[in-house]
Amino acid sequence: MKTLRMLAMGLLLMSIGAWGQKTEKIVFTPQWTAQAQFAGYYVAQEKGFYREAGVNVDIVHPSVTQSAMSRMFNKTSQATTLQLCQALELADVGVELVNILQTSMNNAMVIVSARGKDPLTQKGERVGVWSVGFGQLAICMSIKDGLDYQWVRFAQNVNLFVSGALDATLAMSYNEYYQLVQAGMELTEKNVYRFCDHGYNVQEDGLYVTLDYYRKHKTAMHHFAQASRKGWEWASAHPEETLDIVMKYVQRDHIGTNRTMQRLMLKEVLRLQVDRESKKREFRLRPDMVQLASRLMKENGMLQREVKYDELIAR
């Protein structure tokens, strides 16, 4: 009987979590549907890194009727991923957010031009931009360089561009870029403009929570961030096993993609996590990139004020 009591006590202690606190429930909603862009979080879930850290994470993707941010606002989710420029826009209008983990160290956005043209020669032409956002730096560039693109919004794929309805389109180097490759488009240095190579290398995806939630759950948020980082580090070391996990989420949500596309996406996302200067995965928001993005967006009328680095950092 004594042995049974000791076993029961051991199981109870294990359920409390590795960090000596009760397991805390966190609903995490990435900003888009299931894909390798979020592989590290899936790994952290499937490999038990969250459980080991004492947090009970439920990954719930956005839906047609509920975006990631709307879920944050109505408190059905506690954490989401955002690009830095999106976080700056939200901070500018008074939404208090805290970055608890930065996964992107480089900008992935490109402009792809039709018919082999240089995008910088396409003044006033029709350029596709995501209807859900993400094009802030491109809009800044269009204004700053006097290109005055006609922005045409699209939902999530490259059909408008491939069909000839657009003269150029924005694309992410880990996503739409490869969709265009698979569609047979010829992509060269001449017709692909990479923002990271032209003074717009601004970090993108980071993990964010509201300031109010962070203040009430600092320890849990720290453990959540550290377990997520562990998931990304494991993904980097085990790409094929990570793809198995990604495809599980993709198939569960009936996402129209394939393993080849997700392999390309994962490889590129992991490459973008390596800082150009240090050659390391730093998992930190860089003050100079916050300053650059904030200045560009304010100068081009996208922010009312310059948002400071300290406003976004967990303390």
Keywords summarizing the entry:
5-stranded mixed β-sheet; globular; 13 helices; alpha/beta; 315 residues
Structure characterization notes:
- With 315 residues, the protein is of the alpha/beta class.
- The protein contains 13 helices and 10 strands.
- It has helices at 2-16, 39-46, 49-52, 68-73, 84-92, 136-144, 159-162, 176-182, 211-216, 218-237, 239-252, 259-272, 287-299, and strands spanning 24-29, 55-59, 79-83, 97-102, 109-113, 126-130, 150-154, 168-172, 192-194, 205-210.
- The strands form 2 sheets. It has a 5-stranded mixed β-sheet with strand order 2-1-3-10-4. A 5-stranded mixed β-sheet has the order 7-6-8-5-9, with no helix packed on it.
- Helix 6 links the parallel strand 6 (126-130) and strand 7 (150-154).
- Helix 2 (39-46) crosses helix 10 (218-237), helix 2 (39-46) crosses helix 11 (239-252) and helix 11 (239-252) packs across helix 12 (259-272).
- The longest helix is centred in the C-terminal third of the chain and has 20 residues, at 218-237.
- The protein starts with a helix and ends in a 16-residue tail after the last helix.
- Mean pLDDT is 91; it is low at 1-21.
